[in-house]
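In response to reviewer comment 3 from the previous cycle, which asked for concrete evidence that the modeling workflow produces usable outputs, we include below a single protein chain processed end to end. The sequence was submitted unchanged, and the resulting structure tokens are shown without manual editing.
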Amino acid sequence: MINEVTKKKRPAKPAKVADDPARYAALKWLLSGRDEREVRELLAAQYPKANADKVLAAIMDHLAQVGDADRLVLNGWCYLAARELFAKMVEAGELKAALAAIKEIHQLANK
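The workflow returned the following structure tokens.
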């Protein structure tokens, strides 16, 4: 299903994932590493009225739209996220991980 959805032409304005609890939950499950079968099972158990095909199609449309974002915007987001993670790592005493964040920020700054 997911592979079939990704081959289809994207609608001009995809359905909002955050506006629907089933879509939002399914997106989170996919991002946490669940596969399509697991997401379908979770949808059936927790959102029995949700149409799994439509939920997954909306998520694929959402991911396509997000993936089409401007590179400068994505770089800015990555920079801010790395900086925030760096601060949290220093606070937690995770200096090796903090150094990795510094390297990532440096790499982003030199693009």
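The mean pLDDT is 84. We consider this sufficient to address the reviewer's concern, and the full set will be provided in the supplementary archive.
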